[in-house]
Amino acid sequence: MRVGLTLYGSLDEQSGGFRYDRKLVEGLRRAGDTVEVVELPWRAYPRGLLDNVTTALGDRLRVDVDVMLQDELAHPSLLRANRDLPYPIVSLVHHLRASEPRRLAPLYRAVERRYLATVDGAVCNSAATRDTVAALGVDRDATVVAPPAGDRFDPAIDDADIEARAAVLGGDTGGGGDSAGGEAADGSERGRGPGSEPLRVAFVGNLAPRKGLDTLVEGVAGADAAVDLTVVGRTVDESHVADVRRLVRERGLGDRVRFSGRLSDDELADALRASHVLAVPSRYEGFGIVYLEGMSFGLPAIAARAGGAGETVADGETGVLVDPEDSVAVARALDEFAADPDRLAAMGRAARRRYEAHPSWAASTARVRRLLAEVADAPHAVDPEVVS
Asked: Bias regions of kind Gly residues — which residues (predicted)?
């Protein structure tokens, strides 16, 4: 097949969605397909909508392919262009804006519904994403769930490694309190058993409100256990990061929370290998590849129930699910992990098994290829009443 891929920015971007796009292109080419990548300039949402005022973008998209994949992230720019393109279109949906708890969610829902009416099928990274896409009007029979593999690191981790890492915890959270660390009533350091270490927690993700870093910091502050938090990720929303840093200061967590910024893969692998738990209590995740990547190191996850995280994180088995913005539940989960090294190790082993059982990139690529072939062989039709 001759396949196209349209996306904002460069295929070399490092976020999970772009890694998915890149691995899919590699897999399609390995299977014998030709893939032409059309890279559009990054657009803020309002500027993307303005692309529909002219036909310039449509002219750029007139390439010779049997079927075009479009990263749904670029949907604001594609509403008009898609109406006149000569090939069938399959949307590659990692995450719908309409699914997020945003003030403008009704607007995003209307725009995404309009965009999805111009496509002939959809590749979804999770069952939750497919449900949302279908609710916005895409025929479920024209969709496929093809999750990312999460094998970015694929470290050599065995049960003994996972158990040894958990064994350094003291298993005693000590007295109560509203901040991590500090002194208990008997003068000992709260959360520390004899010879124990603090619970080491990693947050990995873009630093933006959706990812729930503020909820996690509040959870660390509310935990009785000693918790050391390493925050890994690039700043996307400077105002949000300033608010989180202020929260760290106000809660007296300056010696407990470390902002590492964006790390190389090797540096991130070292940070995950040294951690006990991965905690990313996002307000919404379409899939959440970071949970699977943490599980490759045998790390149980703390995640929110919203979206597709629950398809990877089994509550009480491979991690803990909390309600979005529930810092009290996060604190409780941290305390339970710190208090019970055996439970932490058991969940770490289960997390590693979950990673090992997850579909490979080859399996997901095969699912996508079947859908692309079906769409390429079917008539390309757009509902004129929806897009006019």
From this structure: 171-180
